Amino acid sequence: MTSGRFFATACVLTLCARPAAAQARSRSGFWMDGVAGWSRLKLVCRTCSDDVHARGTMVTLALGGTPARTVLLGVEAQLWSGSDAGVGQRVRSVALVAQWYPWRSGFYVRGGTGLANGRVAPADTAATHTAVRGRGISISLAAGYDLAVSRQFALTAQAASQVTALGDLVLPGHTADDTVAYLTRLSVGLTLR
Amino acid sequence: MAINRANAWVRHADWAMIRPADWGRNLRQGWEWDVDGFMTNMFGHPYGGGFYYNAARANGLGFWGAAPLVFVGSGLWEYFGETERPSLNDLYMTGFGGIVYGEVGHRISGVIRDNAARGPVRILRELAAFPFDPVGGAHRLLSGRATRVSTDPEDRDRTPLALELQGGARLAIDSGAARARSASATFLADIAYGDAFAASYRQPFDVFRVRLQFSPRGGGVNQVRARGRLYGYDLTNAAAVLHHVFTVTLKSEYLASPSYKFGGQSLEAGVVSDLALTETRHVQTELFAEWLLLGGLDAPGSGVRERTYDFGPGLGINAAASLLVGRATVVSARWRFADVHAVSGSRADHSTHFLSVEGDMHLTRKLGLGGSAGWYRQRSTYGGTARATITAPEFRAYLTWRSRRGPAAPGGTPL
Q1: Do residues A54 and A84 touch, judged by C-beta distance below 8 A?
Q2: Which residues, 6+ apart, have CB-to-CB distance to A69 below 8 Å?
Q3: What confidence tens digit (pLDDT) does each residue in B173-210 have?
Q4: Orientation of helix B88-112 relative to helix B119-129, angle to 10°
Q5: What angle is formed at CA B192 by the lines to CA B278 and CA B204, rounded to 5 degrees?
Q6: Dist CA A164 CA A181 (whole Å)
Q7: ipTM confidence score
C-alpha cells in the first residue's frame, strides 16, 4: 500500500467512526495535537515560466487553550519537506490558529495565519536544480474530525490547505517575483486535551 | 451579491461582470497580490469587511462567531465576486480590518442608538449610527427595531466613553533634499471606549480607541487608527497604586501623509499600567510587542505595475506614556518601531520609526488648547544593498473640545 493510500484509508476510517464518543468529551483548558501525512506543493510566481508541483510529507504540531466550549486558540508549527527532480525543498511556518466546532460532533474547522520560511525551487531553476530561500507569511484553512478514544485522547484526521507567500526569490540570472507556495495535505494524528 | 450586481448593472464595472467561467479560472489560478490604490486596499477593504462582520452581529452572533464569517465573506467575494484573481492582501485587510471596524462600529452605534427615544430624536440617533454600522442599521429598519420603543433600561450601551475633537493647523515637511513644506487645516477625532483599569476584562473590545484625522488640503484622510482589546488579565490588584494589566489587542491602521504611507493589521501583546500619583493624577504607560500580520508601506519603484508600495509582515515594539489629570490626558508620548519584510513589491526590508508627543492645556472643563509634534522615519534596504531613507516631521496646533460619559471615563495615551 502506498503512503498516499494509507493516509486516505486512515482518514476515511476516522471520518466514518461514530461520533458518540466524541460528544462525551469535554473541551476545556489546555489542548495539543500532532498530525502527519501526505502533502502536495504547488509553487507559482509572477515571473516564472511554469508552476512547479512536488509531493512530500508534512508534520504539524499545535497547542493552546480553550476560551469557549466550541472555540480553541493556539499556536501551530508546520514542516513540509519533499523533492522535485531530486531537488530537496521545504516550507516551515509558525501560526496563530483558531479552531471551531460548529456541531456537537468532533468535526471542526481551523484557520490561522503566521510567519513562514522556505527553501524552494521555482520553475526557472529546474535546469540548474537550485533551491533558494525565502520568508514571508502563511494563511491556512483546515477541516478535521476528532474521534475520542478516551477522555483525554482522540484520533484526528485533517485536510488542510495553506498559502505561503515567500516574496521575491533570487535565482541565478533572474528573480522569481511574488513567489507563492500552495500546500495541500491529508493528515492523521493524535489529540490530547 | 447586491454590491456586485449594482456595480455590474449600474456602473458597468468590468471587474463585476463575472461569469461561472471566471469562478473556475479564479479557483484554478489561485491568489495574487493586487495593484489597487493604497487607500482602497488599506482603508476601503477593512471598512468594507466590517459589513460582513456586522451582518453576523445583527443576526445575533457574538464576537467569536462573527469574526470567522468576515474571512468567509471575503473569501467568497474574492473567488466569486470579481473577474480579477483573488487577492491575498484583500483577504488580510478585509478579514482582520473588518473585525476591528465591524466591532468598533457595532459598539459605537450601540452607544448612539437609544431604543427608548421617540420622534425626531430617535430618527436622528438612528441616522447618526448608520455610517458606523450600515448593515446593522438596514437590519433594524427591515426588522422594525429602528422604530420599536423599548422600556428596558439595559437596552443601550452605557460603557464609559470619551470623545475629543480637535481643529487647527498642520505643517508637514516632505522628505527629500527640497524639504517641501505643506500647511493645511486639520481636524481630528479621538474616541476612547471603556477603561482598561476601571474594570477587569469581560469580552473582546470592551476597551478600544479610535483616531481619525482629516486635512482638507493636506491629503484628505491622513489617519485612521482603531485598536481594541482582545484579551486582558489583571496582573495586580485593581485597587493597587500601581496596576498592571496584561493585554492583547487587534489593530487596524491607515496613515497617509504627503511624504509617506503606512498601514496594516496588527496583533499586539504587552502590559498596560496605571500609576496613581494622587487621587486625580495618574501616569499610564503601555509596552507592546507588535506583530504586523500584513502591512503596506511606500516603496518607490515597487515594481508591481502601477503600485508604488510594498506588502509584507513585520515585527515591532509600541511604547507610550501619558500624564492624566482628572482622567483627561494632559501630555503624552509614543514611540513605535516596526521592521517590515516585503513579500510583494520590491525585494526589500523596511525599518520604520514613529515618534510623537502631544500636549493639551485645559482652558475649561470641555475646551482646551493643544499642540503635537510627530516624526516618521523609514529606512529601506532594496535588494540587500541599496538604501533609501524617508523622514517626515509633522506639527499641529489646535483647539480641543472634549466630552466624557461615565464616572470612570477613559483617558490614556492617544493612538
Answers
A1: yes
A2: A26, A27, A28
A3: 987 777 888 899 999 999 999 999 988 999 999 999 99
A4: 160
A5: 105
A6: 5
A7: 0.82
Phi, psi of A18 (to 5 degrees): -65, 140
Q: Per-residue confidence at A18, pLDDT binned at 50, 70, 90?
A: very low
Report the distance separating Cα B58 and Cα B56, nearest Å: 5
Longest dimension (CA), chain A: 60
* Helix or strand run (H / E) with residue B346: none
Map grid coordinates 470623545 to a residue. Answer: B163
Residue in A162, A141, A173, A175 with CA at minimum distance from that of residue A45: A175
Model's pTM, two decimal places?
Answer: 0.90
Nearest neighbour of A167 by CB, restricted to B30, B68, B347: B347
Residue A115 to residue B235: CA distance in whole angstroms: 29
DSSP secondary structure code for residue A24 in this structure: H
The one-letter code for the residue type at A122 is P
Comparing CB atoms, the residue among B30, B31, B313 nearest residue A136 is B313
Distance separating alpha carbons of residues B344 and B123, to the nearest angstrom: 47
Does the distance separating the beta carbons of B294 and A180 come in below 8 Å? no
Q: What is the identity of the amino acid at B30?
A: G
- Quick one: closest CA in A to B312, which residue? A136
Q: Give the Cα separation of A158 and B220 in Å (integer).
A: 48
Q: Does A172 touch chain B (CB under 8 A)?
A: no
Question: B93: exposed, middle or buried (C-beta count within 10 Å: 0-12, 13-18, 19+)?
Answer: buried
Contact between chains at B92 and A98 (C-beta distance less than 8 A): no
Name the phi and psi angles at B175, rounded to 5.
Answer: -75, 170
Distant-in-sequence, close-in-space partners of B138: CB < 8 Å, separation ≥ 6:
none
